[in-house]
């Protein structure tokens, strides 16, 4: 809150402005999904603020980042297996380790 302002006065001011704040109880986990990975907030505090008909959510907590796994197309697996002369399972494992980079996977398998 704002220093020096009575919480009761703050609620009255917010009501005059048409604002409403609610803490969402019993939040176990919040996950923000991105292409590069996910931000996971365990036991986060979530506050929903409604102002002029629009709801905004604030997440308070310490996130941990979980890197996204590369999606490996089947055509890439077949190409790497053919070029490196290995099974598709080995090719897929190499592609996963190389995060989908075909050239790197072939080089690793050719060593």
Automatic annotation (TrEMBL):
PROSITE patterns: NAC_AB. Homodimer. Interacts with the ribosome. Binds ribosomal RNA. The keyword Transport applies. Belongs to the NAC-alpha family. Keywords: Protein transport, RNA-binding, Transport. It comes from Methanolacinia petrolearia (strain DSM 11571 / OCM 486 / SEBR 4847) (Methanoplanus petrolearius). HAMAP family: NAC_arch. This is Nascent polypeptide-associated complex protein. Contacts the emerging nascent chain on the ribosome. GO terms for biological process: protein transport. InterPro entries: NAC-like_UBA (IPR044034), NAC_A/B_dom_sf (IPR038187), NAC_arc (IPR005231), Nas_poly-pep-assoc_cplx_dom (IPR002715), UBA-like_sf (IPR009060). GO terms for molecular function: RNA binding. NCBIfam families: archaeal-type nascent polypeptide-associated complex protein. Residues 4-72 form the NAC-A/B domain.
């Amino acid at each position: 809150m704002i220093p020096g302002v009575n919480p009761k006065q703050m609620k009255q001011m917010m009501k005059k402005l048409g604002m409403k704040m609610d803490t969402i109880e019993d939040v176990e986990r919040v996950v923000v999904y991105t292409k590069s990975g996910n931000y996971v907030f365990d036991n986060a505090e979530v506050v929903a603020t409604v102002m002029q008909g629009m709801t905004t959510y604030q997440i308070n907590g310490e996130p941990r980042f979980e890197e996204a796994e590369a999606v490996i197309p089947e055509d890439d697996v077949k190409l790497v297996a053919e070029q490196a002369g290995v099974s598709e399972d080995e090719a897929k494992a190499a592609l996963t380790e190389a995060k989908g980079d075909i050239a790197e996977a072939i080089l690793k398998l050719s060593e």
